[in-house]
Amino acid sequence: MSAIVTSGLSKTYKSLGKAPVHSLRDLDLTVDENEVFGFLGRNGAGKTTTIKLLTGLIHPTAGRAQLFGVDTLLPDARRMVGYMPEQPYFYEYLTPKETIEFYGRLRGLTVAERQQAWEQISELLDLRDIADRRIRGFSKGMRQRVGFAVALVGDPPLLILDEPMSGLDPLGRRMIRELILKMRDRGKTIFFSSHVLSDVEEICARVGILVSGKLAACDRITALVGDVPKSVEVCATGLTAEFVAGLGDYVLAREERKEGGHRLVVENTEAANQLATEISRAGGMLLSLHPVQESLEDFFTRIQEGTQISLPEEAQPAALAAAEE
Amino acid sequence: MKRIVAVAENTFRESIRDKVLYVLLFFAACTILGSKILGWISIGQDIKIIKDICLASMSVFGALIAIFVGASLVYKEIDKKTLYTILAQPLHRYEFVLGKYLGLIAIIGVSLLVMTVISVGYLYVMGGYVTLVWFQAILLIFVKLVLVTGFAILLSAVVSPIMGAIIVFSLYVAGHATGVFKDLPPQFDGTVSKQVLETAYYIIPNLNTFNLQSEAANNVAVSGAYVSYAVVYGLAWTAMLLILACLAFEGRDV
Is there a contact between A78 and B90 if contact means CB atoms under 8 Å apart? Predict the structure, then answer.
């Protein structure tokens, strides 16, 4: 069974005297069980709207969403979700232990289950030292830990995390990354939105990219960015400026390196072979030669800019249309 | 039910930290203790005046707690975004609204109890005494506050706290004046004003139903049947307001 299924999910905000705002349009998305799914898009693209629809905080204008086959408008669907908002806000006068206790009661856990939940979660998130301190004085990182802890109360099979790494220092980001992977290893499905593309690339199997409320692409990262190198970078030393300037048009970029020698970029490995031969003939020394893969960031930038993109068939057909808008 | 109790307990803990509550309780205590001043200028009637002012303080300050704390109850959760993680739990929205409501009712009950203890103690110190009608009057003040809180929470689910407080306060004033709406002077006959005010008479709860102040001050017995009627009247209005609050919050995007 799929963890998340949405069909034609749309959300339009209407306010008196203003033009309607289409925050999300016809979202068809499926996230499988035990998958780490990254949900990307610029600010205002509709990520948080989607997450709020999935958690039942807002109601769809059209379409529907299901979590493990249960409509998101029903409380039973939320039994299967642990949710962490972008900036988790809790009652400031409660301690982390009291907060876990409170959410445990909302989930209908017994006293013994709540105690067990605290033991497990506090150990996992290293909350014991701050167990009895009021949240009021907590730093962003500490609040994020409490937010993650609340999402784990009741051991839900699906975690929905809205920008879990937002505003965190490198150590905090790393902690969240490791937690997500740990949860995946425990069989959970993780659906999270993020701006930090390097983190997404590192931990996600699949991603969906929203552009202006429409799903522009959705597939495995390797399928989106491709596994063929987009160019090959060659570094060499002992070359004269005349030789470098005289190289043919097959060299796409050429520059002097600060540390000495030259950096040359060619389109593919065949061109790199030809260049290596020429460097050798000219008495130069080849320092390095490595293929440059397209990163998720490159792909993300291209899709946002609406430049020509070629996607595999299984990626969303809405991609080009959305990019054109 | 357990989830409603969890939300109610938390609301109680939250409201008990609200400075507005203590400011209002302080002024209520000052008014009760200061009632002797008015007693001095009413020769031979001082106990009666103290009783009157004690009950009026409970009614007014209790209503101010209901209005100012109640009108921001749900809105504050949306504004502070604490609602996101709560509504993402497997609870019905009506459970949240009822939990918030019952938490505030508990606070109002405790506040009324504190004011009752202060007034009864003060009356005995001043040489007075209380009878059953005194406690019947306090019971009906509590029922009135239960109703006003219901209205406050309904507005809290749909409008901002300031707007909510203004509307509930207007209802509180109008609710005490519904008799005037019905018994208009003859010059109003056939006017639109008469029709509007008569309509208002039927759609605004008559808060004077809960007013046993003069009976309590004069130790005039009130029948149990009347008190029961007033309790049922208040609870019926409250039930309707809570149903409306739950329905209003059910469809709201947060």
Answer: yes
Residue-number span of the structural domain to which B136 is assigned:
2-250
pLDDT along chain B (254 residues), means of 10: 91 82 82 74 74 88 87 82 90 92 93 90 84 92 94 86 88 84 76 81 87 86 93 95 92 82
Residues of A in contact with B254 (CB under 8 A): 52, 57-58
Q: Which of A57, A103, A105 sits opposite B84 (nearest CB)?
A: A57
ipTM of the modeled complex: 0.82
| Beta-carbon pairs below 8 A across chains A and B | 69
Spell out the domain ranges in chain A. 2-223, 231-292
Q: Which regions in chain A score pLDDT beneath 50? A: 307-314, 316-325
- pLDDT, residue B39, reads 65
Interchain contact, A81 vs B88, CB within 8 Å: yes
User: What's the topology of domain A2-223?
Assistant: Rossmann fold (3.40.50)
- CATH number for the segment(s) A231-292: 3.30.70
CA B148, CA A284: separation in Å to the nearest integer?
89
